[in-house]
Amino acid sequence: MFFWHGRRESPSGSLERCFTDSLDGVSEAPFSALNLGLHVGDDERAVRANRERVSAQLGGVPIAWMDQVHGASVAEVTLDDVASGQAGPSADAMVSRDSGLALGVMVADCTPVLLSDDAAGVIGVAHAGRPGMLAGVVPAALEAMRHLGARDISAVLGPSICGRCYEVPREMHDAARQAHPASAAITWRGTPAIDVAAGVASQLADAGVPLEWVPGCTREEPRLYSYRRDGATGRFAGLIVRKAAVS
Length: 247
Prior knowledge:
Layout: E1 2-10, E2 13-20, H1 44-57, E3 63-64, E4 74-76, H2 79-83, E5 93-96, E6 102-107, E7 111-117, E8 122-128, H3 130-135, H4 137-147, E9 154-157, H5 170-179, E10 184-186, E11 192-194, H6 196-206, E12 211-213, H7 227-230, E13 236-244
Parallel strand pairs: 3-6, 4-5, 9-12
Antiparallel strand pairs: 1-2, 2-13, 5-8, 6-13, 7-8, 7-9, 10-11
Protein name: Purine nucleoside phosphorylase
Organism: Dermacoccus nishinomiyaensis
Keywords: Copper, Hydrolase, Metal-binding, Transferase, Zinc
């Protein structure tokens, strides 16, 4: 179920961060098996069952999901929003100060970004594909977290398609290089490519945010969903949840 799972404790509680894989779910091909995306053509009942399985592994906490639109919009979400059954926001980043609420970001090649400030009790997620990286979704998420009081933010970048595998037209490569030189890449065949995660990492570095990078190329790793590799496929997720200390 988890490609990577990290947990750390602090006097104020615990912080869990994870990236799921495609295993241990109920979806059938071509979405086998732990597809978490409702928008890809999978059976809705299977997706909701998969989401419940993930929630159970995180202690039964509710999960906030987004309608991801490849932009730079950021939404603040609360536990009450999710508990009321309110539809997820149309955005590509979410931030929250609430404990006991997981934030989820779905990907199948794009870069999932998990953000946190333990002392301030603020968490965030961002969906950084090529358009989102160029639009500045990650800097926008950092700004939103600082508005909530975050001052010492750290980041985890999850698995995404690597620069060797993300071939693009020359003009697209050149535009990305001009905006964020670190994102310029070349495929294993020597053709123009973009390394979105490297571009995001440079944005975080410019903002003074330390990061942990979970290795793994979605196109090369069979446990992960990849739209570039498979076309019709599911979505895995990056998730972050802060749990208050029990007195």
